[in-house]
Structures are given as C-alpha cells and as structure tokens.
Design a protein that fits this description.
about 290 residues; alpha/beta; TIM Barrel; five-stranded parallel beta sheet; three-stranded parallel beta sheet; 11 helices; about 35% helix; about 10% strand
C-alpha cells in the first residue's frame, strides 16, 4: 500500500500558472493516483495569496474528498492573517468546524512570514491545541517566494519546534530538505544540491525534536534521499517512524520522481521501514484506522 501525504486539486480550472498548468480536478487526481499505483492521498488546500493564481479552500477539498472517500483524505488550511490579522485571532472556531467536516490536518501552510512572527505563533498554538499535524513550506526569502521564511540553519523552525512541542510539523520544500547536508549554502538552499551528504542541520533537528516529521514529496524530498543513496537509505532507516511518502502532484501532467524511486528501495531498507514510510506512519498520525481493518 502507498498513501501520499501531499497532493493538490481544485474543483475546476481557473487562472493558469505562469507556465500554463492548472491544479488537477479530483477526478484527474484519482486518475494520476491510479497511474502511479497509489492507494490514497492527502489533499492540501491553498488559502494564502503568495505566488498562487488559484485559491482552493478547505470547503472545496472536503467536497471533493466526499466524492472519493476511499481515495482522498482532506486537510484544512489557515493563513495567520485570517480573521483580525492580529496575534489574537481566534482560529479555534475554524479548526473545530473543519474537524467536524472530516479534515485530518492543516496545510500546506505557505504565508511568506517569519516562522516566529506573532501572527504565526498564534496560529501554531491553536493548531497544536486542536491536535492536528501541519504541513509547512519553507521559503529562503521574504518577498518573491511562498512559505514561512527561515534563515540558513533553520533557527526559526527550531525555535518553533521548541515552543510548541505538541505541534507535529511535516517539513517540506527545498530550503527544508537542503539542510539535510552541512554543505548547504545561501545559494544552494533554494534548489537541489548534489553530491555526498555530510549530516547537516536537519539531521540534528530530527534528533532533538520528536514533533518534526519529513514530507518526502516533490523534487526536494526525492533529491534529499537520492543524491547520496547510501546516506539516504541510512537516513530513512534511522528516522523511519517520522518519514512520509509523497508526490506533490499539483497538475495532471506532473511525473513525480518519488514513486519509482521509493519502490526501488524495497530490499535496500528494511521491510519495516518501507511499510512505515509507505503508509503506516500516516495511518497512525491521522488515525485512519487502516492497520486494524
């Protein structure tokens, strides 16, 4: 079994991205899952304005998931500027309703604000209180990017992990995964560094904070574990309880690198680690009830 921790969809096409692509519809997404041999997938709404041409609110995600209840798992989403655009905004009322609608987590959160902005911490606190995991995107800059801003070495992410030990953060994006190696630079952290891995800041954070998990989707997650296969396999084995298979399907034509690569790891990592990353960790995290069926 494979459960994808990171996909996107929209009810209908709208304004295309600069390159002309659109989010898939739910039907197209399920078709891509069939093509790739993926059994189920989390769908992530988009509600922040940064670098997006289409909003995909939680209500739409829930509606699409209800059409494919055995295949699609809805997340909700928030922006820390919602409601009053202040550190006293009440997100509990949003989260309560979204949980009642069946949402299993929050994300992909992409506001281009520093991790430790009071607006963000107010939102993080209430997500932690609701007991929901949060998928994040990290950006290398303020302006011209989407995702929470952090500096090289991810000091603001660490500050957040320490402040909110009950908030499970699913890390994603190039600046997140580039930190797997100590040789990352300001110039390479926004891309896909190559070459042997020297254990870096991300390894230290995973060692220190049990509330940090890894979203292996997209080119960033794939690059992190495939650029140095010996290290990557050992990394997956070591952190097998907090790694999640994913694709980041965001348009119908996308050919994600992770499915074929992850299948090739059968026999290279333990069967136990492979099964956990493939689906058991997400089943446990989201309380899907698959393991007991």
């Amino acid at each position: 079994m494979l459960i994808d921790c990171h996909t996107h969809a929209a009810r209908t096409p709208a304004v295309p991205r600069t390159g002309g692509s659109h989010f898939p519809t739910a039907e197209q997404l399920v078709g891509r899952l069939d093509d790739l041999g993926i059994d189920m997938a989390v769908m992530l709404p988009i509600v922040s304005p940064e670098c997006r041409t289409r909003y995909c609110p939680p209500e739409d995600i829930v509606e699409m998931a209800q059409t494919w209840p055995d295949r699609l798992i809805p997340f909700c989403n928030l922006d820390p500027r919602f409601d009053t655009n202040s550190p006293s905004a009440d997100f509990a009322r949003f989260l309560r309703i979204y949980q009642e609608m069946g949402c299993k987590g929050v994300g992909e959160t992409i506001p281009n604000l520093p991790f430790d902005d009071p607006l963000c911490w107010n939102m993080f606190r209430q997500i932690a209180d609701a007991g929901l995991p949060m998928t994040i995107h990290i950006a290398p800059s303020i302006g011209g990017a989407y995702g929470f801003y952090d500096e090289p070495g991810l000091p603001l992410l660490e500050k957040t992990l320490r402040e909110f030990p009950d908030l499970i953060i699913l890390g994603h994006s190039q600046p997140f995964w580039a930190e797997i190696s100590a040789d990352v630079t300001a110039e390479t952290r926004g891309g896909y560094p190559t070459g042997p891995v020297m254990p870096g800041r991300l390894v230290e954070l995973l060692e220190c904070y049990d509330n940090l998990w890894g979203d292996l989707s997209a080119g960033s997650g794939h690059n992190a574990i495939s650029r140095d296969p010996e290290f990557g396999n050992a990394f997956l084995e070591r952190f097998q309880d907090r790694m999640l298979f994913g694709t980041d399907i965001s348009f119908p034509e996308y050919e994600p690198p992770m499915p074929d690569y992850f299948r090739s790891l059968r026999g290279q990592i333990s069967d136990e680690a492979w099964e956990k990353i493939a689906w058991r960790n997400l089943d446990r995290l989201l309380d899907l009830g698959i393991a007991v069926c």
